[in-house]
Amino acid sequence: MVAPELESNRVEEAITLNNMTEQNRNNVLSKNFNHVGAYSSLYTICQIVGLLLVFSVFYWILNFRGGFGFTEAKIIFNWHPLLMTIGFIYLFANSILHYRTFRNCKKRDLKNHHAIIHGCVIVLVILAGWASYASHIYSNPPIPNFYSLHSWLGIVTISMFLSQFISGFVSFMYPGIAAQYKEAIMPYHVFFGIFNFILAVATSVLGFSEKLIFALDREYKNFPKEGMFGNFLGLLSIFYCGLVVYLVTKPEYKRQPKPEDGVLLTGALE
């Protein structure tokens, strides 16, 4: 579970803002307003690109890979790339950006939304993993599992995501955890969360390439429509990843602390 808002020095930030002159405070608020406007514009573009990626994968499977179903091994597999794209790319990205997008909501509500979205991602990933595994064992002859680099990276990505989810739930959702512990673990939680997202996109791009090579074989080098469309999916995924990482790492787009977040002079973070 990713919580992409660094909580360190929140008390200091609040005190500094209170001690500013009226003019300086207005300047800061004006800059924040401009940053929010820029973020909103880029976020809209990010949403368009993300939805375009999901619908493009759907189009690819429907028009080139035979559609969806549960009767044939090849058709069962087609659920795998679509569900992984929705869960591990689109929903994962929106969860990462959730704090900065809905900056006026209460922090505890944002945490709950964050956890719920990640729970949905886990469900979709489990279904996608089942689709891949089932398609291999039901093939005639059966196809071996977990031999490719794509599958290995997939296992690493899923394992890291589950670790992030569990550690994040215990650290930031479970009551009674010391504020010092939350503050110490936050930078690592943020870093590995963003790294996990990048790894998910890289694994997906590798998966697109692997599927094209297996499906098209020697025809791939002749620039077939499906091959070029599959390459477009990879490029679109990378572009989307770049947008998300930029939005979540730019300091100016960070959600500012709210009084209702419960920041106390004792140093409590919740």
UniProtKB/TrEMBL annotation:
Q: Where are the transmembrane segments?
A: 41-62, 82-102, 114-133, 153-174, 186-208, 228-248
Task: State any single GO MF term.
Answer: metal ion binding
Q: Which UniProt keywords apply?
A: Electron transport, Heme, Iron, Membrane, Metal-binding, Transmembrane, Transmembrane helix, Transport
PROSITE patterns linked to this entry: CYTOCHROME_B561 (PS50939)
Keyword check for Secreted, yes or no. Answer: no
For this record, the Gene Ontology CC terms, alphabetical, are: membrane
The protein's required cofactor(s) are namely: heme b
The domain of life is: Eukaryota
Q: What is its main location?
A: membrane
| Cytochrome b561 domain ranges (all copies) | 45-249
Record-linked InterPro entries: CYB561/CYBRD1-like, Cyt_b561/ferric_Rdtase_TM
Gene3D superfamilies registered for this protein in UniProt: 1.20.120.1770
Task: Tell me how this protein sits in the membrane.
Answer: Multi-pass membrane protein
- Transmembrane among keywords: yes
Subcellular compartments: Membrane
Please identify the protein, giving its name as recorded.
Cytochrome b561 domain-containing protein
Q: From which organism does this entry originate?
A: Aphis gossypii
